[in-house]
């Protein structure tokens, strides 16, 4: 589900930008053909997360440090929703972090849909184009432009404006 994958990355990147005041936010991705999965990592040099709270941040309405994060927008739902969506797609979402040094969020998602998962659904029975040729070309052009001239921003506010995607919703 490309839409959900985009929302997951958007949420992780906006969180990284929100909690990184100096340094960088880096997004890397690739595929592991042997395991038939894609891997995405969002790494930042932000405020980081204490070891005691690494799993807690994935709980709904929970944030790493209520007193410190109170100054940031958010309800503490984004990571909980991300992890749930990733799990429902057969993947994993994990985090490595050190307080004061930044965080690394790792997403792994299968890219070959199992026949067993979709057996009997219209998705598997569907014949014909899944994506139009015009849309495929539009996506390819967008990716090529992004690769030729990556967007740069000096702080999180301009960086968030460079990201035209909608935030992660529960829908």
Automatic annotation (TrEMBL):
Q: Sorted alphabetically, which keywords does the UniProt record give?
A: Kinase, Phosphoprotein, Transferase
Gene3D superfamilies hit by this protein: Histidine kinase-like ATPase, C-terminal domain
Under the heading SUPFAM superfamilies, the entry gives:
ATPase domain of HSP90 chaperone/DNA topoisomerase II/histidine kinase
Q: Which GO terms describe its cellular component?
A: plasma membrane
Protein origin, superkingdom: Eukaryota
Fetch the SMART domains from UniProt: HATPase_c
Name it: histidine kinase
């Amino acid at each position: 589900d490309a839409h959900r994958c985009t929302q997951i990355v958007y949420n992780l990147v906006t969180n990284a930008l929100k909690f990184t005041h100096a340094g960088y936010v880096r997004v890397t991705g690739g595929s592991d053909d042997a395991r038939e999965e894609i891997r995405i990592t969002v790494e930042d040099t932000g405020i980081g997360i204490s070891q005691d709270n690494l799993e807690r941040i994935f709980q709904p309405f929970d944030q790493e440090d209520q007193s410190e994060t109170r100054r940031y927008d958010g309800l503490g739902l984004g990571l909980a929703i991300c992890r749930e969506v990733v799990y429902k797609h057969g993947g994993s979402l994990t985090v490595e972090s050190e307080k004061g040094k930044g965080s690394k969020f790792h997403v792994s998602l299968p890219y070959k849909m199992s026949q067993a998962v979709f057996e009997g659904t219209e998705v598997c029975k569907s014949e014909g184009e899944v994506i139009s040729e015009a849309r495929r070309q539009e996506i390819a052009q967008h990716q090529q432009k992004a690769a030729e001239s990556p967007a740069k921003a000096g702080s999180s506010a301009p960086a968030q404006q460079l990201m035209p995607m909608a935030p992660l919703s529960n829908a």
